[in-house]
Amino acid sequence: MSGKAGGPLDRLVDGLALVAGVLLCALVGLICVDVAARTFKLFATPWTLDVAQYMLYAITFLGAPWVLREDGHIAIEVFVEQLVPRARRALRRASDALGAAVCAVLLLYGARLLWRSIESRNLVYATFVFPEWYLFCLAPPVFLLLLLLFLRRVTRGGPQAPREPPREGI
Amino acid sequence: MAWYEILLVLLGTLVLFMAIGLPVVFAFFATNLIGAFVFMGGENGVMQLVRNAVDAVQSFALLPIPLFILMGEIMFYTGIAARAIDAVDKLIARVPGRLSLVAIVGGTIFSSLSGSTIANTAMLGSTLLPEMYRRGYKPSIAIGPIVAVGGLAMLIPPSALAVLLGSIAQIPIGGLLVAAIVPALIMAVMFFGYVILRCRLDPSLAPPYEVGALSWRERLMPFVQYVLPLSTIFFVVVGSIIGGIATPTESAALGAAASLIAAAAYRRLTWKSFVVSIRQTLRFTVMTLFIICGSITFSQIMAFSQASSGLSAAVLGAGLAPLALLAVMLLVLLFLGCFMDQVSMMMITVPLFMPLVQQFGFEPVWFGVLMLMCLEISLATPPFGLLLFVAKGASPESSMRDIVLSVAPFVAIALAVVALLIVFPQLTLWLPRLMAP
User: Fold this and answer.
1) Angle CA(A99)–CA(A103)–CA(A105) in degrees, nearest 5?
2) What is the pLDDT of residues B344-396, one digit of tens each?
3) Predicted-complex ipTM score
4) A106: number of CA atoms within 13 Å, CB side?
5) d(Cα B188, Cα A100) in Å, to the nearest integer?
6) How far, in Å, are B80, B231, B263 from residue B269 at the CA level?
7) Fewest CB within 10 angstroms: A129, B163, B191, B247, which?
8) Which residue of A has its CA nearest to B31?
9) What sign results for the dihedral spanned by CA atoms B151, B155, B156, B157?
10) Residue of B238, B233, B219, B237 lying closest to B266 (CA atoms)
11) Nearest-angstrom CA–CA distance, B355 and B315
C-alpha cells in the first residue's frame, strides 16, 4: 500500500495492508449488494451482518502494523516537541521501547488465549458455526509484527517514515 | 485504595504514557494491561483484555465508519468537492467577505458529503486560502471561517465520529446523526452572519473586488450541475435514516456507492484517485478502530475498580444541580480537547459520563450532540487543535498565533450555540422525533 520497497518485514506489512484494502472494498460492495437484494427482493443474504463484522475486525488488525509503520497512529507530540532534540530523541526511544513491551505482553497473552480456545474447542454459533479460535488467530501474529516494528523504531531511533503533517483524526 | 485514588492513578498513567509520545492506542493498551492485572483478576484479567480487543470491532454499529470516511475521501481526491466549491463561488457575489462566505457555504455542503473534518478543512484551505490572500484578505477573516466550518463535518451526517460516539455510549446512532444537523446549520448561519457583520464594520479585512460579470444562467448552472446532484446523496443518506428505510450502516453504504457513481458520472474517477481514497480510508479506519480495541477495557476497569460508581456516588452526594454537572462535564471535554484527540477523549469520558447522564435523566441524544459540539470545538483550540495544524499546512506563511486569533471568534460563536442548545433542547431533539419508529 505504501509503494515502498523494503525488507521481508515491510513486504509482509504491505501485503497485509493490501489484503485489508481489498477487504474494505469488498465490505462496501457486500453491504450495497445486501441492501439492493433486500430492497428489490432479489435474494436473501442473512450472513451479511456476521461476515461484515468479521471483515471490519480483519481490516482493523491487518491494517494496524501498516499504520504503525507509516507513523499514522495518533500520538500526542505537543509535549515531546518542547524538548531539546537530544531529550526528544531519548524520550521517543523510551516510548517506542514501552510500545514494544506492551506488544510483547499482548503477543504472549494473545497466544495463550488462542491456545486456550483451541483446547476448549468452543464454537461460535452465528450464521455459520465455527471454532472460536478462528477469531483469535489474527491477534498474535499482528502483535508480533507490531512488536518487531517498535523494536525497529527503537534501534533506528524513530519511525521509518517522517511524520506527515496532521492528516490524522477524522 | 479509595475510588478517587484509583481514578487518579489510572488517568494519570494514561496521560503520562500519552504525553511521552506513545501512540494513544498503545497508551490505552499499557494502562489497561496494568489496570486489568490489578483490578480484573491478574492474568485472567489480561486475557480478558485481549479477548475484548478482538471482540471490540466486531460490531455492526461501527460499520458506517469506514463507509462515511470513504465518501469524504472520494469527494476529496476525485476533485468533485473542489468543483462544488467553485460552483458556490460563482453563485455568491457582491457581498462583504465574499470568499469567506464561499468557504462557509461550501464547507457546509462538503460536510454533508464527507465524514472527515480534516479533508473538509484541507480542501477549503487549499482551494480558497491562496485566492483570499491574493485578494488582500486579512488572516483574521480568511483562516477563521475555514477552520470553523471544517469542523462541521463532525456534526453533519455522514459523521464517522457521531457513529463512534453512538456506538460506545449506547446512544441510538440514527437519532444522533440526525439530531446534530440543526445545531450544525445554526452554527453555519451564525458564522455567515458574523463574517458579513465583521466585514461591514471593517471593510479592510476583506477588500471588495469586482467579480467577473456573469449572467444568472452562468451563475446558476454550475450549482445545478455540481452541487444539486451531490445534495441528493445527502438526502438519500439522511432521508433513509429518518424514514426508517435503512439503518445507518445501510445508508452509509448507499452513500459510499453513490459517491463512487457520482465521481464516475462526472468522469473524475480514475484508478489513481480510487486507490488513494481507499488508502486514506484504510488509514483513518484502522487508526480509529484500533484505538477502540486498545481502550475498550478501560470502561470495564473503571467499573471493576469501583472508580466510575464512586465518582457517580460522589457527584450525586455533592448535590450538584443538573445544569452545573452538565457544565462541568462539557468543561472537562473542552479542557481535554486542548491536548487530546477526539477518539481518546470519548474513550476516557464516556465510561465516566454516561452513568451520570442516566442518573440525572439527561436525554442521551441531546447530551451526545452537546458532546459532539465540544469535540468539534476542541478541534480548533490550541495547542493540539488538529484543524489549526491543517490550516497551518494550507497557509504556511501565517503564524500559529494569527491562526489561533482568527479562529477565536468562531470558537466563541460555537460556545454560544452550545449554550443555546442547553437552554432549548428541542432545537436538537425535534428532528430525531420525526424519525419513523
Assistant:
1) 120
2) 899 889 999 999 999 999 999 999 999 999 999 998 988 778 888 888 877 77
3) 0.89
4) 35
5) 45
6) 9, 19, 5
7) A129
8) A102
9) positive
10) B233
11) 11
d(CA B76, CA B259): 11
CB neighbour list of residue B399: distance below 8 Å, 6 or more residues apart: none
Cell of A94: 523510551
Name beta bridge partners: A130: A124
How far apart (Å, rounded) are the C-alpha atoms in residues B123 and B137?
A: 18
Nearest chain A CA: its distance from B131 CA (Å): 22
Find the closest chain B residue to A107 by CA distance. B50
8 Å CB contact between B66 and B287: no
Return phi, psi of residue A125, to 5°. Answer: -105, 90
Residue A129 to residues A47, A56, B430: CA-CA distances in angstroms? Answer: 11, 19, 44
Strand segments, DSSP code E, in A44-151 are 123-125, 129-131
CA–CA distances in Å: residue B99 to residues A34, B95, B143, B262, B377: 43, 9, 11, 26, 23
Q: What distance in Å separates the CA atoms of residue A46 and residue A30, rounded to the nearest whole number? A: 12
pLDDT in tens, B86-123: 888 888 877 889 999 999 999 999 888 887 787 788 88
Distances (CA, A) of B429 to B153, B206, B248, B417: 19, 37, 18, 15
If you search the block for the grid coordinates 452554527, which residue do you land on?
A: B187
Identity of the residue in A94, A105, A136 whose CB atom sits nearest the CB atom of B54: A136
Pull the grid cell for residue B132: 483570499
Non-local CB neighbours of A162 within 8 Å, separated by 6+ positions: A71
Name the DSSP letter for residue B211. Answer: P
Query: Cβ distance B333 to B371 under 8 Å?
Result: yes
Instruction: Cis check for the bond before B432: say yes or no (omega within 30 of 0).
Output: no
Using a CB-CB cut-off of 8 Å, the residues of chain B touching A167 are 118, 122, 280, 390
Residue in B116, B253, B344 nearest the CB of A31: B253
